[in-house]
């Protein structure tokens, strides 16, 4: 396996979610673990109805980076 395949990239989108590319493990506050791959958008505004994932609520509430 190429080391590039092990990399995870995190990008903060302006006024939106964190975009995470690669394979990573996500653990919820209840202790449920999931391994995610590909590209995932994680909520940063706190208004998503599908937390921890972004559902676009940041656009409705006018979220801006602090």
Describe this structure in words.
- This protein has one helix spanning 57-61, and strands at residues 9-12, 18-21, 24-27, 33-36, 39-42.
- A hairpin with a 5-residue loop joins strand 3 (24-27) and strand 4.
- It is mainly beta.
- The protein starts with 8 loop residues before the first strand and ends in a 5-residue tail after the last helix.
- It is 8% helix and 30% strand.
Number of helical elements: 1
User: Can you give the helix content as a percent range?
Assistant: under 10%
Which stretches are low in confidence, meaning pLDDT under 50 for 5 or more residues running?
none
Order of helix and strand elements from N to C terminus:
EEEEEH
Would you tell me the structural class of the helices and strands? mainly beta
Number of strands: 5
Mean pLDDT: 91
Which descriptors apply to this entry?
single chain, 66 residues, mainly beta, two-stranded antiparallel ribbon, 5 strands, 8% helix
Topology:
Blueprint: E1 9-12, E2 18-21, E3 24-27, E4 33-36, E5 39-42, H1 57-61
Antiparallel strand pairs: 1-2, 2-5, 3-4
Summarize the structure.
With 66 residues, this protein is mainly beta. The protein has one helix at 57-61; strands at 9-12, 18-21, 24-27, 33-36, 39-42.
């Amino acid at each position: 396996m190429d080391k590039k395949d092990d990399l995870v990239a995190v990008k903060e989108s302006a006024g939106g979610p964190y975009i995470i590319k690669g394979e990573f493990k996500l653990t919820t506050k209840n202790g449920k673990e999931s391994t995610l791959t590909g590209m995932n958008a994680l909520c940063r505004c706190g208004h998503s109805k599908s937390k921890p994932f972004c559902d676009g609520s940041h656009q409705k509430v006018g979220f801006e980076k602090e």
